[in-house]
């Protein structure tokens, strides 16, 4: 028997793509806050979790990465029309056209929490504690756990283009609470230590969702190929190390 058939799957993947692997075209949403997406003055992707994971994923596929920064409202259409191959800070619950796209296995978790001013009179331990509150969220994003809040509790959804504008509105008293991922909230506090002291991370965990890569119908790479690459990164511990490098260190 040829030794070819004894090689691990990831070696076969690398060998098959090493010579002529096309670039992996990755879409990122400009509305994603740091550390997920960090843009330069020209609004191009400079650094961040999406870039580091995208580069690692492309390398695991045996190719290079190309990034396109898109508005959140254009992300779904860009995927549906295969203008990008993948968007990897994604989950089917967040996409109105999820059924039209391919989806990889889990990549890394996103934990959504509620932030208020430290002086906020309520302790947010559940959805009922946000009743009649003005809640800042990101425009164009779907928040399945909060749908009953908008429908039944008299709460007001206040859309903002980015987390930074939501938190500024919170500090100005224009809204009562902000819902965002722990990673993004921690990064904002790290960059803004003085105003960050005015914030309180509330105990309620709004949602814990595993992010996946949304895959365009005519992506250069199949869901199966992407899953193999994600499994390789997990096996090597690269995904965990990259995510941990963006965790907020308090000491």
* Average pLDDT number: 89
Q: Tell me the helix content.
A: 25-40%
Task: List how many beta strands DSSP finds.
Answer: 11
Q: Quick one: biggest sheet?
A: 7 strands, mixed
Radius of gyration: 20 Å
* Residue windows where pLDDT falls under 50 for at least 5 positions: 1-5
Tally of helical runs: 9
How are helices and strands ordered from N to C? Answer: HEEEHEHEEEEHEHEHHEHH
Q: How far from one another are the termini?
A: 56 Å
How much strand? Answer: 25-35%
Q: Give the class from helix and strand content and strand pairing.
A: alpha/beta
Shape: globular
What this model shows, in words?
It is built from nine helices and eleven strands. The protein has helices at 9-17, 49-60, 72-80, 147-152, 163-171, 182-191, 193-196, 223-236, 238-244, and strands at residues 24-29, 38-39, 45-47, 65-70, 86-90, 102-103, 108-117, 134-138, 156-160, 177-181, 199-215. Strand 2 (38-39) and strand 3 (45-47) form a beta hairpin. The N and C termini lie far apart (56 Å).
């Amino acid at each position: 028997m040829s030794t070819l058939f004894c090689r691990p799957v990831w070696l076969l993947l690398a060998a098959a793509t090493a010579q002529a692997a096309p670039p992996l075209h990755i879409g990122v949403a400009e509305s994603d806050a740091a550390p997920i997406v960090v843009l330069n003055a020209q609004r191009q992707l400079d650094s961040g979790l999406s870039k580091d994971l995208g580069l690692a994923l492309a390398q695991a596929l045996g190719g290079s990465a190309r990034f396109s920064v898109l508005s959140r409202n254009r992300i779904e259409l860009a995927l549906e029309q295969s203008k990008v191959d993948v968007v990897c800070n994604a989950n089917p619950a967040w996409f109105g056209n999820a059924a039209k796209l391919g989806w990889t296995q889990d990549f890394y978790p996103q934990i959504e929490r509620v932030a208020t001013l430290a002086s906020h009179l309520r302790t947010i331990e559940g959805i009922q504690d946000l009743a009649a509150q003005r809640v800042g969220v990101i425009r164009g994003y779907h928040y399945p756990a909060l749908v009953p809040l908008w429908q039944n509790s008299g709460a007001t959804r206040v859309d903002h283009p980015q987390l930074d504008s939501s938190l500024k509105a919170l500090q100005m008293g224009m809204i009562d609470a902000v819902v965002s991922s722990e990673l993004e909230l921690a990064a904002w506090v790290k960059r803004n230590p003085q105003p960050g002291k005015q914030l309180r991370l509330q105990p309620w965990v709004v949602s814990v969702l595993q992010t996946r890569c949304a895959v365009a119908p005519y992506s250069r790479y199949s869901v199966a190929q992407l899953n193999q690459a994600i499994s390789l990164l997990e096996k090597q511990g690269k995904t965990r190390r990259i995510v941990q490098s963006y965790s907020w260190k308090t000491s």
